Amino acid sequence: MNKRFWSGLCFLSLALTLWAEDGSRLWLRQTPVNQASVCCLVTSPMLTVAREELAALWQGGEVDLQLCADETHRRLGKEGYTIRTSEGKTVLGAATEQGLLYATYHLLRLQAEGADCSQLNIQEKPAFDIRVLNHWDNLDGTIERGYAGRSLWKWEELTDSVSARYREYARANASVGINGTVLNNVNASPEILSEDYLQKVRKLADVFRPYGIKVYLSVNFASPMKLGGLSTADPLDEEVARWWKEKVREIYGLIPDFGGFLVKANSEGQPGPCDYGRTHAEGANMLAEALKPYGGIVMWRAFVYSPSDADRAKQAYLEFQPLDGRFRDNVMVQVKNGPIDFQPREPYSPLFGAMPHTPLMVEFQITQEYLGHSNHLAYLATMWKEFYRYVQPSSLKGVAGVVNVGDNVNWCGHDFAQANWYAYGRLAWNPDLSAEEIAREWLAQTFTTDRRFVEPMTQVMMESREAVVDYMMPLGLHHIFAWGHHYGPEPWCKVPGARADWLPSYYHQADKEGLGFDRSRTGSDAVSQYPDSLARVFDSLEQCPEEYLLWFHHVKWSQKLRSGRSLWDELCYKYQQGVDDVRAFQRVWKEMQPYVDAERYQAVAERLDIQAHDAVWWKDACLEYFRTFSKQPYPKGVEPPVFTLKELKKVKLPISNYEPPTIEMLPRKK
Ligand code: GCV
């Protein structure tokens, strides 16, 4: 990093402080003071980043960066580090440069949070080796399920021009310990492997390398045909295997530390080994063999749902579990956190724990495809912590997060959506951190350390995801979204010719008796895919956690729940609770005005207005629709509907590929 970069950064910071805060600086808002004396005996691009960060930002006296070969540091592995205060100096120690880089960002984070840095004694080591982002960015600049503008990657400008944002992106990732990025959509264009695109990928890899970020690519399994002109992509065909080996050799010639491939195969129309009667393991292993000599890996997704069973929630397990132990050691099977598809709440996928002889990665979705896009404030760390209540981090090799960044000035659309990118990285480093402490540290760095701001907003963030669940899909309801865009409600949705499991009625199963999908032993028996002790709990109507009730059971409208209320009444109260919660968030935010710059205050306030509006829309749509089955009135305390079902059934949102809807597009009362 050169002097020009830093003076540019200084100028930019000053300008931003004077004029406005547009969210572009994320959680990295410290102003360069250029007063630290930093000692580092080794020179390298990565250590230059660390040294310059400290020299510009650190205000706590002398710092030493030391590469250490002792036992302590060896045990902390290739990314771990220590931070110690010794004889008045702050000493960062690690076995590798990457460890020192992470130590640097840790120290600067403490300073930004206003922590006491005078007597430090810290040891850190990441829980997972693989901590990657998945971009669902298409080569034409659109982003599948992206709500913050167009892709960051300006393919048409690369390789001639390299946007300054690439480095800022790498810096942000490194600051939270993310060490890899998959640049393109899993619905992959074969073009990404063309010579032309590989040159562009190389440019990005060069920018990311000093920040410890490896580049990976999503590949289309039919690339040997579409790009290479072969007549097949059969993984057992020698010519096909040779084509991949050649391609991999070409990639490593350009990018020696290339991470590997991510593959979506035989899923939602993507090609794969099953097209040739081969298994997922045979497909993955062929690619793994090509990557192995270079240390590359294959992340093979288990997001499949071919109708092998009438219950979609069972299908991935049925297809992948029998393959346990059949994958090469450089294949990671990448499993979404839940068995269906990133719903506001799902139980964990039973594949975790069921493939002990296969390295597994969990895939989380940071972008809010099913949680109000970038319009709704939904802090997702609480959801990811819920996953870890059931799945031991030590059973996983890595974590992937479908990221929410685009080319919007503030990166993520909603200023609070940045917290999800941040929290994803922090939890990928240490899943034992609490959602609450991550919220606090993010708020302190992103807005202000003033407790009068941090405390109430931590509370808002901690309650936010549950509020979304309540006004969208409480009590275990799932996938009752509008067709295609997954923004608003459409529990009544019918599309002639569509797959049954793409329609809400398949999931909610509402009828005059009750509501919910019966996955008990007498229903689809999905419960049996879980370990016995848990299967018994999920199977029992009495013991099943209520947050999963309608996921596992078809429950009578009159069934008494733990509150003593009937299912119908409880459902009404939950929807009302969601609406009330968002209104409470609005009130808290109003009180925060003195602590927030005008620009971000206004932007968040506007999005909260949309969210409050949407919560009512969800409540009315779902309760009015389910009422046609329950035939019951709203209980006392639940607001009467603002919209009629007839009105809501007419709503069709013109949703674009990269921005969330504006308030003008949403259903409104005249
Ligand atoms: C990238 C869901 C999304 C798709 C996505 C798919 C996947 O179905 O709606 O947009 O495609 O998951 O994870 O592959």
Short structural summary:
InterPro entries: A-glucoronidase_C_sf, GH, Glyco_hydro_67_C, Glyco_hydro_67_cat, Hex-like_dom2. The chain folds into 3 domains: 22-124, Chitobiase, domain 2 (2-Layer Sandwich); 130-437, Glycosidases (TIM Barrel), CATH 3.20.20; 470-517 and 554-665, Alpha-Beta Complex (Alpha-d-glucuronidase, C-terminal Domain), CATH 3.90.1330.10.
What this model shows, in words?
Helix 9 links the parallel strand 9 (260-263) and strand 10 (297-301). The protein is an alpha/beta fold and 670 residues long. The strands form three sheets. Strands 6-7-8-9-10-11-12-13 form an eight-stranded parallel barrel. A five-stranded mixed β-sheet has the order 1-2-4-3-5. The model is unreliable at 10-19 (pLDDT under 50). Helix 13 packs across helix 14 (451-472) and helix 14 packs antiparallel against helix 18 (567-591). Helix content is 38%, strand content 10%. It is globular, with a radius of gyration of 25 Å. The termini are far apart. It has three domains: 22-124, Chitobiase, domain 2 (2-Layer Sandwich); 130-437, Alpha-Beta Barrel (TIM Barrel); 470-517 and 554-665, Alpha-glucuronidase, C-terminal domain (Alpha-d-glucuronidase, C-terminal Domain). Bound molecules: 4-O-methyl-alpha-D-glucopyranuronic acid. 4-O-methyl-alpha-D-glucopyranuronic acid (GCV) is lined by residues 136, 144-145, 186-187, 264, 268, 303, 341. 4-O-methyl-alpha-D-glucopyranuronic acid binds at residues 136, 144-145, 186-187, 264, 268, 303, 341.
